[in-house]
Amino acid sequence: GNWYWVSRVRLLFAAENPYRFTRRVVEAHKLRLDSEAVIRYHMYVDCMNTKSVPDIDTQMLDNITNHALGACQLDGTKLNWLVQRLRKQISLDYQRAHNRITFDSVAHTLPGSFTYVTIAKVPEIAKSAARIDIPKYPFHKQFDSFIFNSFLTRPEAIMSLGDVRTECNKVSSKD
After folding, report:
1. Residue 10's closest CA among 36, 41, 32?
2. How far apart, in whole angstroms, are the C-alpha atoms of residue 65 and residue 63?
């Protein structure tokens, strides 16, 4: 017989439930449309002009570079090359974020002009991953208990300890 190419998504096995198969195909089609919309959105943002976007503040860029190099143990030549790539990537990401904010605000204010654009939403997984649930803790009660049991929270006690240390240093230097 004849041979036909069938994609795996559209292949229904005899033992498979046809209703589940239909749901799977519909879900795959929906995911494909969503993925195409996200790719199109990012393409629009990436194609925006970056020359009119202000550059990232040099002090901020220096701080990021210093933090990134805090634990670095590379030699000078390789390190300089990596630092230049890092700074270029940070600047590009900054400009892209600026363009994304601009694009989103224009698309929201003129929705009729951008009917073909689906603004990318932050997935719920990313939102929940960025949060840490902190259990209830009686902070004020514990702090009050600490203050009650410690004199080191009082300015008078701290000043007195400083004076005692000064006097001890004077006595020890006379010997």
Report:
1. 32
2. 5
Alpha-carbon Rg for the chain in angstroms: 31
pTM score, two decimals? 0.53
- Tens-digit pLDDT profile for residues 62-111: 887 777 776 665 566 777 787 888 888 888 888 888 888 888 888 888 87
Is-contact 100 119, C-beta < 8 A? no
- Angstrom CA distances, 78 to 75, 81, 86, 109, 140, stand at 6, 5, 12, 47, 51
Contact 3, 81 (CB under 8 A): no
- Lookup: tokens for 141: 């009660």
Are 103 and 45 spatial neighbours (Cβ–Cβ below 8 Å)? yes
79 close to 72: Cβ distance less than 8 angstroms: yes
Residue 72 to residue 65: CA distance in whole angstroms: 11
Alpha helix positions (H), 47-151: 58-68, 76-109, 124-129, 139-149
Polymer length of the chain:
175
- What integer pLDDT is reported at residue 122 of this predicted model? 59
- Per-residue model confidence (pLDDT) at position 26: 92
- Positions in the chain whose pLDDT score sits under 70: 70-76, 120-132, 148, 175
